[in-house]
Amino acid sequence: MNTPILDISLRPYLGSFLVAMLVLGSQLKAQTQSPEQTLAAMDQCREQVISQLSFGDKMKMKEAMGVIQFIAANAAVTNAPTQEDKIAARKTLAKVKLDLIAQQDPSLKPVVDKIRTAQAAVLK
């Protein structure tokens, strides 16, 4: 089954989400906060926007976040400064890939579990 990782129809949702985050983020800049407080406020803003979405839109956002996570993990491998960092980043990328495969096609979960078991045995 060839299903796209990110459906093109998600673009309007991502745009709306980003606009809402920018508006809420600009409100945060007006306040003097520690970095931890700022991050917590950003998380709260994101959760507030997401909580107002329909179930279908929430699922689309989850899918889009998975794709973003994959892109970030792939970039971490490419940009790793040391060999140890590259190994750690590749482990993370492998986990993200398997998570996305299992999410996209639940019938592949047994195969994904076998791959994880085999990889865990190699990493011991």
Helix content: over 70%
Order of SSEs:
HHHHH
**Would you tell me the structural class of the helices and strands?**
mainly alpha
* Gap between N and C termini: 34 Å
Shape: globular
How many structural domains are formed by the residues?
A: 1
Counted by DSSP, the helix tally is 5
Mean pLDDT score = 83
Q: Taking Cα atoms only, what radius of gyration do you get, to the nearest Å? A: 18 Å
Low confidence ranges: none
Largest beta-sheet characterization: none
Q: How many DSSP E strands?
A: 0
The fraction of residues assigned to DSSP E strands is under 5%
Structural write-up:
By secondary structure, this protein is an all-alpha fold. It has one domain. Helices cover 78% and strands 0% of the residues. The chain has five helices and no strands. It has helices spanning 11-29, 35-51, 55-78, 83-104, 109-123. The mean pLDDT is 83.
Relevant terms:
124 residues; mainly alpha; 5 helices; single chain
How would you summarize the topology of this molecule?
Elements: H1 11-29, H2 35-51, H3 55-78, H4 83-104, H5 109-123
Helix pairs in contact: 1-2, 3-4, 4-5
Care to give the gist of this entry?
It contains five helices and no strands. The protein is mainly alpha-helical and 124 residues long.
